[in-house]
Amino acid sequence: MSANLKFIVLSALCLAIPLAQALPASVTQALPELEARGSGNMRWFGLRLYQATLYTPGGREFAWQAPFALEIRYARAFSTDELAASSRDEMARLGTPKAELPQVFSTLRRVFPSVAQGDVIVGAQDANGHTRFWHNGRETGQITDPGFGRRFFSIWLSPDTREPALRSALLAKAR
């Protein structure tokens, strides 16, 4: 499958949706101040791929320097390699240097399991810039490189994201 097709499979039109359930207890123990900020669906040709919800301190406006979490609730199954390759390709598109991409892919394969319909992956960045991942409430890994989180979460939160409607839904204040 080509890189563009992989991204298309993991990208789509977005619609604002009601906020998801609360974060798993293991995440709230690590980052207790986080509350839902905004949420949206990722769709491809009308098929929902996942629901994304952004959590910020007290549900306030998003800021890169503050802790935050992004929850992805999958509506379809994806393999570890599909998730890692799609993320790597988007990070490359957004400026991650080509020389770093093999390490990025290896790191993402380490923290991303394959997912089935209904599975949840939460990625969070703490105040120190460390990135942690959980799958269905179980921590799968931590990345201490402070630049990694910004490059990774830019897939959804950068003004240059491929999915500006999803970005807007994530950054919108929940009603």
Oligomer: single chain
Class inferred from helices and paired strands: alpha+beta
Shape: globular
Helicity range: 25-40%
Q: Would you count the extended β strands for me?
A: 7
In what range is the share of β-strand residues? 25-35%
Question: Mean pLDDT across all residues, rounded?
Answer: 88
Order of helices and strands: HEHEEEHHEEEHH
Low-confidence stretches: 1-20
Helices, by number, come to 6
Rounded to the nearest angstrom, the distance between the terminal CA atoms is 40 Å
Q: Tell me about the biggest sheet?
A: 7 strands, antiparallel
Radius of gyration: 15 Å
The main sheet orders its strands as 1-2-3-4-5-6-7
Q: How would you summarize this macromolecular structure in one to three sentences?
A:
By secondary structure, this protein is an alpha+beta fold. Helix content is 34%, strand content 28%.
Describe this protein's structure.
With 175 residues, this protein is of the alpha+beta class. It is 34% helix and 28% strand. The chain is built from six helices and seven strands; from the N terminus they run H-E-H-E-E-E-H-H-E-E-E-H-H. Strands 1-2-3-4-5-6-7 form a seven-stranded antiparallel sheet. A hairpin with a 5-residue loop joins strand 5 (120-125) and strand 6 (131-135). The longest helix is centred in the middle third of the chain and has 14 residues, at 80-93.
Compile the SSE list and pairings.
Blueprint: H1 3-10, E1 14-16, H2 25-30, E2 34-44, E3 47-57, E4 68-74, H3 80-93, H4 101-111, E5 120-125, E6 131-135, E7 138-143, H5 146-157, H6 164-171
Helix pairs in contact: 1-3, 3-4, 3-5
